[in-house]
Each structure stands twice: as C-alpha cells, then as structure tokens.
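Worked example

This section walks through a single chain of length 357. The input is the sequence exactly as stored; nothing has been trimmed or padded.
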Amino acid sequence: MTAPTPGDPDRGGRPLVSVVIATHERPDLLLRCVTALVAQEFDRSAYEVIVVDDGSAEGARRATEAALARLADGTHGAGNATTAVAARASNPTARPIVRYVYRPRNAGPAAARNVGWRMARGAVIAFTDDDTVPLADWLREGLAALGRGFDAVGGRIEVPLPDVPTDYELDAAGLEQAVFATANCFVRRPYLEATGGFDERFRSAWREDTDLHFSLQARGARMGMAPAARVVHPVRPAHWGVSLAQQRKVMFDALLYKKFPQWYRAYVRRTPPWTYYAIVAAGTWSLAAAAQGNARATLAGLAVWIALAVRFALRRLARTSRNPSHVAEMAWTSLWIPWLSVYWRLRGAMRFRVWFV
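Given that input, the structure is written out below as tokens.
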C-alpha cells in the first residue's frame, strides 16, 4: 500500500494525509486544536484538516464556523443541512485546506469520524480530538512511524496534571497509557475501508477507538506505536460529582465484549468488578431486610455496604487531593458509583444481548 505523492488539492492532486476531528459545542477548544494543526512542520499542500460538527446547537455551530474562518481568508458553503467550508489563505503554501462539515443530528463521535474519513482525500487518515494540542512535528512523526512497516499506529498522549490531582484528573490521565486512541492515531485508508471504520453503535466517546483497534487487528493490520508523535491533552474542567454521570459509558463495554470477548478480557478488564457487585448485593440485602422488618439483617447489610464504600473512597483518595470539597465528593460518589456502574453494565448487556457482568 504505497502512499500517493503529495500534491495540492487545488491543482487536482491528493494530500498525503487527512486529519479528522469530531466536535460538539466546543468552539474554543477546537480553535486551539486546529490552530496547532495548521502550524504543523509539514508540507502545507500535503495534508488537509476535516472538522465534523456533530449536531452542535445553532449558537455553537456559528461560533465554530467563525473560529475556523478566522484561520483563513475565505469560506463557502455546500448548502442544505450539511455545510462544508473550504478555507485557504491567499498564499496557498501558508496553510493547509480546512474543511468544516455540519451534521444537524447528533449521532456520537464514532459516526462523525466516519463522515470525516469517508470524505477525506488522503491515503492516511490521522485522528485527533477537538480538545488536544498536537505538537508541531506530530504529523511528521506519525507518518514516519507508519513508514516503518505498520498499517496503523497510536501516538503518545500527554496529560498535564497538577502536583496533587483530583480523582477526575487522575482518571483522565489514564489516556497516557492508551495504545490506540482517537486522540492520536494514524491509519492507512484501505484498512478503514476494510473494517468499515468506527462502529456507530458506540454513541459516546468510550471504547469506540478500542473497538477500531481490535477490528483492524482482526483484519490483519500491522499495528504499531508512534511515541514521537505527541499531542497534549489538557484535562477539561468538570462539575462536582462528574464521576456519577460518567458511569453511563460503561454500557458500551458490553458491546465491545460482545464483539471481542477474549481481547476485552485480555486487554481491557480481566475480571468483572466484584467489589461493585458486593456493594450492590449488600445494599440490596439491607433494603430487602428493612422491608421485612428485620432490623439486625438491615444493619448488617448496611454495615457491609458502608464499609466497602469507605474502602473504595479511600482507594480513590490515595493519590489525589485532600481538599475538603474533593473529600466530600469522593465520599458521596463512592456510595453510588457501584450502583450506577452495575445498572449500566446490565443495561448494556440487555441492549446488546450479551451475557456481560
């Protein structure tokens, strides 16, 4: 699979690489990302940037269009419900082509990325997220890694943290251990075509990149790493108790498990979250006993639930902030995370019709 010769798309050639970004109502973060992309230390005629707006509200859509327009001299629309903006500065070597596509219906980042790579013209598709900042040599290093005999590579994701992070920040830093994540990966187009790209049943930004990784592997793609291709992924601010809302994403673990059960157990989660199940069982026992008027059994179940929840909270606090507000957040959310996690796991099992615990 030989990459085409780089060429200026305006002269009928094809770019060597297309960068695809899915976005939703984050114009300021997107502008930061695209600004870094158009400043890459790379032949400007050899790459393009495609931004797919996944159903942002009208205000955010207009802000996104305006932000991208500020990066170039001219824009034009494609009409109807989908808008494409092709922008280039008066000097054709100053910036790469930036295209903006608006999808009126929010369908999730997997679907948005499929729109992007399918309209891309590059032989290599690079993915990053709208809240990253690719380093200036990102494209060059990613393509260099592919040139070492790989069909797809995952780059390095750097997550800056304060000296004493919160539990949410520490959890976000787990991206640094990712082998293949949409925040930083490169794939040869024929392999995306062979797999069909992202499975659009993954409606949240969760496990869709792992699913693509496994799908590429199943198709015989040679997978590698590009540690020199780096993006910075600052942690976005989050509201108090954000970990409760995050449990909904666990539903998509069931879909990944259904498709790749052996690889899921080998690389994602080796065993079910037995502590969560124990907490839910103890709480359920306590509620059932209370309904029957059995005070001793009620207290016993409640004691086990509280003890396990405290242990869970202390584990989350072990390397994180001891700010009183954060400690209170850990105490409160540790009581309920197991319940929500088990609920969404079972909900996913039913939705995707798979035995998954």
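What to look for: Residues 1-11, 73-92 have pLDDT under 50 and may be disordered.
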